[in-house]
Amino acid sequence: MKKIKLLALGAALCMAGLTQAAPTPKATSSKISGQETAILTDAPAVPPRITRKHATKVVVNLEVKELEGRLADGVSYTFWTFGGKVPGKFIRIREGDEVEFHLNNHPDNKMPHNIDLHAVTGPGGGAAASLTAPGHSSVFSFKALNPGLYVYHCATAPVAMHVANGMYGLILVEPKEGMSKVDHEFYVMQGDFYTQGKNGEQGLQAFSMTKAIDEKPDYVVFNGSAGSLTGDNALKAKKGDTVRLYVGVGGPNLTSSFHVIGEIFDKVNHEGSTSNPDKNVQTTMIPAGGAAYMEFKVNVPGTYIMVDHSLTRAFNKGALGMLKVSGDEDKTIYSGKMTDEVYLPEGTSMRNTGVAQAQAPTAKTKADRIKMGEGIYNTNCAACHQTTGVGVPQAFPPLAKADYLKGAKPAAIKAVTGGLQGKLVVNGNEYNGVMPSWSLNDEEVANVLTYIYNSWGNDGDEVTPEDVKQHRITPVKHEE
Fold it and tell me: How far is CA 110 from CA 105, 106, 139, 404, 480, in A?
């Protein structure tokens, strides 16, 4: 009998211990004080940090617009947007806030739309309450119960089509204790686009449901278009600054392997969680419909390239951006190139890119040829020769004011169609490397060379498809 009583007492104590260890229920109520209208921003900008120490009523006004915009150079697309751009407006609220959400469907739109916010606890994340016809406005409210960085998107059928057309964005629910202060916060969101024409095909492109179902995008881009975060649009910081990136993936299909070349993330909050960040991370996976935020300090000046490390997406389909950091060099952290010596082991050979390009439309004027050539250049040449044509010292020769190009159209054509290898002198400087041949048709070669000849102080020549046909080199195929 004593043994039975002892066992019963032990069981009771264990149950009591389990009860005490159980997690505290999620707080579903907090005192609401005051009211404010949410500050919404277009990427890459982020609304300011929330400094208030109490929950409030936040009114969010978000307008849906269907409009034509730039997808890539010479390529336009009819985007469906939250706020007029892709991605949609960045929304920033605080844990415990009561949000009154107004979804306004512009009267010029053709489609009904709604919104599913992953930060919402409720049917469809708000989608069930927000289906809105053109010219109408829907209102619903929700309590921000869980802190974190969340995706929102349209959930109107066919959902994949609405998302593929650009209907996604991020909402940040700051924890009650707030976010730490950094020097810069930026908003970057990746999406995959599926067009009727191939990558680089000019003009207005329509959505391809067949490609979307097959998950074969023609473009994978940051912030709605190829080049949206390059050149003059690059993110900017100063040496010594701390940077926080809020990165989401709208999809509809692809997972991103997000990486900043030349940086290590000091902290990464995976899946948008506000707790327990990982430290010293090189590349972080972000799923479609997911988000993460990362922080790092920039110690060395220069241009840092942001990519989806599934690299053909970055260098061939558009998932590439730049962070330009100004300031004085610190040779103790990064020396730059110290020596440059020729290294030519046996067995080196030319390589053809082997990439089949989209059929280029025929240019009717020299101006057409220049415009079409710019898109080809930015896709195939800018990574080495830079968007400004200045090249890379000791690595890739400049095309800007290049004496190599003067009166040398045949040589330029042969370089593009047959590649180059060995020593080359441009503007008095010697280069010794390999340029692969490119699988471009006569029209495309003519277009890109005409663009080069008419940019950066060059002599303004026009290269025609007939010129290319006359001087083309067909590269020799090598066994692998």
Answer: 9, 9, 20, 53, 53
pLDDT, one tens digit per residue, over 109-145 is 999 999 999 999 999 999 999 999 999 999 999 999 9
* 3-state SS, residue 9: helix
Angle 233-238-240 from CA coordinates, rounded to 5°: 145
- pTM across the whole model: 0.75
CB 10 within 8 A of CB 152: no
CA 395 centroid distance within chain: 27
* Per-residue pLDDT band at 77 (split at 50, 70, 90): very high
What pLDDT is attached to residue 28? 61
| pLDDT greater than 50 at residue 39 | yes
Q: What is the pLDDT of residue 407?
A: 85
Report CA Rg, the chain.
Answer: 27
Strand pairing category for 55-72 and 75-82: antiparallel
**Which H helix or E strand runs over 100?**
strand 98-105
**C-alpha distances in Å from residue 186, one per residue of 37, 47, 223:** 21, 10, 11
DSSP H stretches of helix in 381-436: 382-385, 409-418
- Phi and psi angles of residue 389, each rounded to the nearest 5 degrees, phi first: 75, 10
14 vs 10, 159, 398, CA distance in Å? 6, 49, 75
Rounded (10°) angle between helices 366-380 and 442-453? 100
Say how far apart CA 404 and CA 429 lie, in whole Å: 11
Residues 44 and 186: beta-carbon distance below 8 Å: yes
What percent of the chain lies above the pLDDT cut of 90?
Answer: 72
Is the pLDDT at 302 greater than 80? The verdict is yes
Asked whether the beta carbons of 202 and 361 are under 8 A apart, the reply is yes
Query: Concatenated DSSP letters for 63-82?
Result: EEEEEEEEEETTEEEEEEEE
CA 262, 264, 266: angle at the middle one, nearest 5?
150
Q: What is the pLDDT of residues 462-475, one digit of tens each?
A: 999 999 999 998 65
Alpha carbons 125 and 99: distance in angstroms, whole number:
13
Q: Is the CB of residue 449 less than 8 Å from the CB of residue 472?
A: no
Q: Tell me phi and psi for residue 305, to 5 degrees.
A: -100, 125
- Residues shown for the chain: 480
Token pair for residue 226? 């190829």
The tokens for 166 are: 């650009």
Note the pLDDT tens digit of each residue in 167-216.
Answer: 999 999 999 999 999 999 999 999 999 999 999 899 999 999 999 999 99
**Residues 103, 132 contacting (CB under 8 angstroms):** yes
Q: Is 382 left (phi over 0), alpha (psi -120 to 50) or beta?
A: alpha
Give φ, ψ of 367 to 5 degrees: -60, -40
